[in-house]
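Appendix B. One record, verbatim.
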Amino acid sequence: MAGARVDGWPAFSARTRLLVIAPHPDDETLATGLLVQQVLAAGGEVGVVLLTPGDNNPWPQRALERRWRIGAEERRRWARRRAAELQQALATLGVPPTALHVLDWPDLGVTRRLLQATGVAVDTVRDAIDRFGPDLIAVPALQDRHPDHSAAHVLVRLALVGHPAPPRLLAYLVHGKATDHRALSVPATPAQRAGKQTALQAHRSQLALSARRLRRLAERDETFLDPDEPPSMVSAALPWHPPRGLRPWLRLDVVNPAMTQRWAWRQAPLRRAADGTLRLLLPVPARATPCFVRLSLGLHSPWIFDHWGWCQVDASEPAFVADVAPLDRPS
């Protein structure tokens, strides 16, 4: 990528190739509408990888179609509607139809695809990246509480393992707010902000019930995190201390280039360190980086967002093993 300004924000040029990873239609506008316009204004190219059609979206569909039952045909119809909205939004931002690459994965199913078919899913994302050849990728942040978003982050990070010239990553939050002091904000013009709002209007299905919330999201500064933490910045400790009463239903997922594994909480290879933090102890062949861990509750709930979600941990160093005790697992 051509140079960078003093503040760390990349300077775009005709050589810039930005790839936006969008879990659902409207993420491309909400998260990167300003970024996309700036790259195109500099003469660069933009590609968009859409992971899901956004068809598992029953409440707006019920409201607009005045029906209660949403079956397979209704979901297909909703997917077609959202696809048309996406094309209109991209056209408003200046992105041609040929720039869109659709994976057609199940809406609210990206985490399941990551955990149940890791190799195939990672290869699919890697192929999408390689066919466009970006030097910059806008990807959902690991901290995003929507499970499709955080799983997309893990997939992209795994897809770039071993890449000979990995592109720079800019991680965006749609469901949440960046609190990291190192977050970079897009320096946008009033015209670009207006263009983003116009593109958002194309997503009429999503504005039906959530217009105020989505317009507020679109009005925010676009901020991006750099997920490529130096190894010294990645902790070996898990950030969670779940209530004891929930532990029978907790599940711990671990994904890295060497393994994908799920455990019930009481069977997970966890130890408590002297400072009270929990550490993940993996066998030597499974100590690969980057390593991502997810804590979830194995109970059905209408709430789709993660409470704990994913974190990145340093599971490569066995040095702390002697300093920890087995995790208390009372019956």
